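Section 5.1 Outputs to date
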Amino acid sequence: MVKQFAYQTRIVLGRQMGKVAAFTGVLALALTASLTQVNNLHAETPSSGHALDPAIRLAMQSYETTADIKDFQGTFIKREKVGRRMQPTHTMQIKFREKPLSVYLNFLNPHEGREVIYFHGRNGNQILAHETGIKGLVGTVSLQPNSPQAMDESRYPITTIGIRKMLYQILKQWNEERKQDAGVAVKYFPDAKLGNMQCKVLQTSYPQQRQGIRFQMTRLYIDKATNLPVRVEQYDWPTRRNAKPELVEEYTYTNIRTNVGLTDADFDPQNPNYNF
């Protein structure tokens, strides 16, 4: 009975925040990214260094900014290819706490009304999730974060969510790629826009597929106002000659409010503001 309900583990919904307006505005932002004034970062790399060094240095500065964030809430948007199928764009509102790792997701689109909670150290370290409407008749179910049911629409488990972890994975990727001699091209867009958000964007790409290189192109968006990572795009090699790289992962955080003082009640299914 549980298997028919696919609970998205990397998406987040808040509630009581004007669902129609939030969805319309955020989706427009998710689909609108303008990259201009491209610079080549190779010129900033010392002759003894690697072409990736300037990108890693700028990403590390953003990563250090995230160290001061104990919690945040906002809107999370994701597009992912799972298996051979590109999933629809998921828009959610999120509440997130670093310690203990706690996540509340409230779906805006699709699966409007779905709620998901993960609270490390409680509920057997399982996800609590429920649907609405007819599907909601089954009530709240418990799922292991990496179970097939929980991962049906997602590439990664809910335990990997969050802006700091998102950036950590990029830094890990670039440091691993740094060990390769694969002809990386590094570009810097100092005046990019993501919707109305002013961003700086780091882009890395490779001319051909090599062992140890997972993605053909990676883009990291950093909010210029806060220095926080707000978007990651990952592209696979094209399947046809002269085709463009294929998007396989895209994660966007918007309307972020940090250190708002989230408590255990924000991750409690008994919270009267939730529908568990």
